[in-house]
Input
Amino acid sequence: MTHRSVEVPVVARVEGEGALHVRVDDGEITRLELEIYEPPRFFESFLRGRHFSEVPDIVARICGICPVAYQMSAVHGLERLFEAEVPEGTRELRRLLYCAEWIESHMLHVHLLALPDFLGFDDAIALARGGFKEAVERGLRIKRLGNDLLAAVGGREVNPVSPVVGGFSKAVSARELRAFLPRIEDALGEILQVADLVAPLEMPVLPRDAELVAMTNPLEFPMNEGDLASTRGRLFTAAEFEEVSTELHVPHSNALHSVFADTGLPYVVGPLSRVVLNEAALTPLAREAATRAGLHLPTLDPFASMAARVAETALALEEALRLIEAYEPPSPPRVAIVPRAGRATWTTEAPRGTIYHRYDVADDGTIAEAKIVPPTSQNLRHMEHDLREFLPRVLDRPDEELTRLAEMVVRNYDPCISCATHFLRMDVERA
Amino acid sequence: MSAPERVRPRVAVFKMASCDGCQLQLLDAEEALLELADAVEIVHFAEATSRMEPGPYDVTLVEGSVSTPEQLEQIHEIRGASHFLITIGACATAGGVQALRNGRDLGETIRQVYPTPAYVDALATSTPVADHVKVDLELVGCPIDRGQLLAALAWLLQGSVPRPPTTPVCIECKRRGYVCVVVAHGEPCLGPVTATGCGAICPRMGRGCYGCFGPSQPPNTEALARKFLELGMSPTRVADTFRFITGYAPAFREAAERLEREEAATP
Output
């Protein structure tokens, strides 16, 4: 019997910490575990007893890359429970804040985390020194635009301070936002160059079956509002989320794994799911960026995720332009909140996919129980599934290349392990 | 003939329990990141590069708090491999928001989040790195200020050790001419007792400071707590205001505990 094990002790260029263990016996994978050793931080526990108004500041700390996603799910859910009528213009400003997060997060992923793989470099710095300086600088420039926009609306790029239950603590001025218009116009041209950079990259293919899940909204590409849908015809609301999706606890992971409650099968959330389920809502430039990046819809191939991120960046830029041109600051910026007991549930579309929050609130406005299901923990089981499908095709490759390929499969999901632990080292065992 | 290559300091970045937001400040430095990469050699930074070299390291940045038995071992290994150790952010310097579980029953905490508690290995407390090993420089904040981080690295390259400011946010507001949210809106603000570094963002955005940069020196938490009580807040809410993002920092922890003792003593 031949035996081989491949270990990736720290999966690089993902947010957070994880490892991958693979054991191969007689050419077959007999053990495959994505170990999430990112330490648990117990947010859902220490949220208990805290006042509802503190929730946006606490949950922002779950993830340094997508704090807006956490804040937005929390404020929308709590406002619905408290029947708060937020000031006119609030939903537009929140959508703009989300656009900013998609731009910075997607451009971070494409240029700093994923692109080095496809061009054969260790990191973006080596990439810049290896003849791709212009491409890296362009990516960082668009990313900076997202960060700056986020800081203008939120007060700060990481852990924004202005989003509150009831609106914003202060609404950014129209003058400050309009100053972004020339930079957005430039980025709208540059994002097509990013698409042209991505298109010719030699990518593995993984034609596997999968059920994709995302929010949908008949009026717009979903960010803050919408119900949920899947590529196999499921339709459900945030209030029904825990009936449809259930979490499993496996010994090798500090992050829970999500599966469908009825079938026990995994599903996929994220940019690819969104563009497949919301193709009709893509903006004209997003459509052009998708085509030029080589994204042919519909597709289930996880390696199409990078092109989906480019398309969504184009969409977020176009939306930002539209929102800023029409912007009038909400006045007053926030409404007073009268809390009441009950259950708040909401989903929004984080850069990495659908994020679900539930808060059970007591009479005095304190949190009695909280549940947060981030996109990465929903995708974890499917990452393992993809690896099981993909690795047997490349087992003849040397360990170093095998490791790189395995990391690429995982990185399709842009996993944010810090979020999911509430992620990567790889080892492949083979003789 | 080419000039001999200059020896660049070897820099490593490690992460313990945290959200990645502080190391993200390096990736968010963008153009400066490329410049920095010319000045130093980044030999270990899992979030940014596949390159993972063993020590020794000239400068090591550690993000995150010590919260598992494995991390407790790891932080001693990191210290052993590092010439100059910098902790970055509220988690590494004060235990982080996850230190809100400190003082609660660990078993209960785990049960509230995980269906199979036996799979979870955690310490009873989330603690700052300096509780376990010698730290050469602490950069506070949630997140840290990118300018402070880059300045600190620039100082170190020149052979000096920087001293980040410990004056309160309150002074920053006066300097920048921001309207005081306590005086104008009766809103609780930790600005008088919190170290500056953020640029007084919260008062600028029309809300009270919530202590991201930890206690200023010296922090008069007693007087501020009295003011909050006068604003009509309950002692529990005032205690919670101190016990927040940097609530495990000694000055804030003591302020919260003092309020709770007083409340318990009130018939």
Observations:
- The domain at 10-157 of chain B is CATH 3.40.50.700 (Rossmann fold).
- The first helix of chain B runs from residue 24 to 27.
- Chain B has two domains: 10-157, 169-265.
- Chain B has a mean pLDDT of 92.
